[in-house]
UniProtKB/TrEMBL annotation:
Residues 24-270 form the Radical SAM core domain. The keyword Cell division does not apply. Belongs to the anaerobic coproporphyrinogen-III oxidase family. HemW subfamily. This is Heme chaperone HemW. Keywords: 4Fe-4S, Chaperone, Cytoplasm, Heme, Iron, Iron-sulfur, Metal-binding, S-adenosyl-L-methionine. Residues 1-20 are annotated as: Disordered. The keyword Nuclease does not apply. CDD domains: Radical_SAM. Probably acts as a heme chaperone, transferring heme to an unknown acceptor. Binds one molecule of heme per monomer, possibly covalently. Binds 1 [4Fe-4S] cluster. The cluster is coordinated with 3 cysteines and an exchangeable S-adenosyl-L-methionine. SMART domains: Elp3 (SM00729). Transmembrane segments: none annotated.
Length: 410
């Protein structure tokens, strides 16, 4: 979750939505994202809305404490119930992210999930995920999460190489994420993901291959691989500017992506989104798919974003300000925007083109259709889906996905 919030119109103090936001809501899935804004240390590449204990000291008082965070977040879940009224939809997915959710006690995460269950109910086949730092869990912790209703877990592995982890300021030791996969399986988790980052300064092709081999060998059913983006204002950006570490160029990122596709495909994984591979249909992250397909979700927590029926809003960033708003009976919303039909069309193209199934050609305007024809002739779109009325990326198209989507929405 990026640390910089957009501009927007004010959110009503009671958090109420325009009546149109709930029109035909029964036809759309409902999801919850629960943001935990705490980290033990700040990674040098991270631009997310997270806070260490040092950063919070004296700036939020007891309201910003990890100790009572689960209860504070439950207050926002209850606010969501009031705002959504008699909305009958059970929650299809819950995703606890951060930050480092597993800095909280396992019982706190279970209590946060319990608040969603109590207020809305969970679908019988609900997907319930938490992110986890490999060094912050053990078998007992994972067993408590599983017993409390979590059935999917995502471990931040990033790399199998110690020197790469050091550049990223990651504190876990090589091999620990792989051990976590085994511990999660033993605890009964149905689905396990490993998150990887490629393109770290100082990483070689062999380093990246070793990370992929280690992740596959650990036995997850899902792997995410993201190119490192150096965000302005981060410690890593400052180190690169000072010449302490080199910047990785786009050609290297492309080579690493091809290595990932080759390695993961050989191991039986298939891509279903540009940065995500799974060993089975059931292993796909449904929560993220709901984002990519424009479903309704409520994001609870500091800086969390939400979307319901074409209304997007975001919460205040700081944990102290967030907790204070809820304690005063106010929505913690900092701003919102009402998406036009054109906004929503463009977002569908932007997001759905990244999916294996692609985007319906009927969503494209005349210039976009013409661009799609050129992309097809240039080998960026698959011929079969195109003939069936969809723009779906080839492997080469995935490498140039940002450029392709720009052409299709213009």
């Amino acid at each position: 979750m990026p640390s910089v919030l957009p501009d927007g119109e004010p959110v009503p103090e009671d958090g109420s939505l325009p009546a149109s936001a709930l029109d035909a809501s029964a036809d759309r899935p409902l999801a919850f994202y629960l943001h935990v804004p705490y980290c033990a240390t700040r990674c040098g590449y991270c631009d997310f809305n997270t806070y260490t204990a040092t950063e919070l000291r004296g700036s939020g008082g007891v309201l910003a404490s990890r100790d009572n965070y689960a209860a504070t977040l439950a207050d926002e879940v209850r606010l969501a119930r009031k705002v959504l009224g008699d909305d009958p939809r059970p929650v299809r997915t819950v995703f606890v992210g951060g930050g480092t959710p597993t800095l909280l006690a396992a019982g706190d995460l279970v209590a946060m999930l319990g608040a969603v269950r109590d207020e809305f109910g969970l679908a019988d086949d609900a997907e319930v995920t938490t992110e986890a730092n490999p060094e912050s869990v053990d078998p007992a912790y994972l067993a408590e999460l599983r017993e409390g209703g979590f059935n999917r877990i995502s471990f931040g592995m990033q790399s199998a190489r110690r020197h790469v982890l050091k550049i990223l300021d990651r504190t876990h030791t090589p091999g620990r994420p792989e051990a976590c996969v085994a511990e999660a399986r033993a605890a009964g988790f149905d689905h396990v993901n490993l998150d990887l980052i490629y393109g770290t300064p100082g990483e070689s092709d062999d380093d990246w291959r070793a990370s992929l081999d280690a992740s596959v060998g650990a036995g997850p059913d899902h792997v995410s691989a993201y190119a490192l983006i150096v965000e302005e204002g981060t410690q890593l950006a400052r180190r690169i500017r000072r010449g302490e570490v080199p910047m990785t160029d786009d050609d290297v990122h492309a080579d690493r992506y091809l290595i990932a596709e080759e390695t993961l495909s050989a191991a039986g994984f298939e891509w279903y989104e540009v940065s995500n591979w799974t060993a089975s249909q059931a292993g796909r992250c449904l929560h993220n798919e709901l984002y990519w397909r424009g479903a309704d979700w409520w994001g609870a927590g500091p800086g969390a974003h939400s979307h319901v029926g074409g209304v997007r809003w975001w919460n205040v960033k700081h944990p102290g300000a967030y907790a204070a708003a809820l304690a005063q009976g106010r929505s913690p919303g900092a701003g919102r925007e009402l998406l036009s039909a054109e906004d929503r069309r463009v977002e569908r193209v932007l997001l759905e083109l990244r999916l294996r199934e692609g985007v319906p050609l009927e969503l494209l305007r005349k210039a976009g259709l013409e661009a799609s024809g050129r992309a097809l002739s240039e080998g960026l779109l698959e011929p079969g889906p195109y003939e069936a009325g969809r723009a779906a990326l080839t492997l080469r198209g995935r490498l140039l996905a940002d450029a392709v989507v720009r052409d299709l929405v213009d």
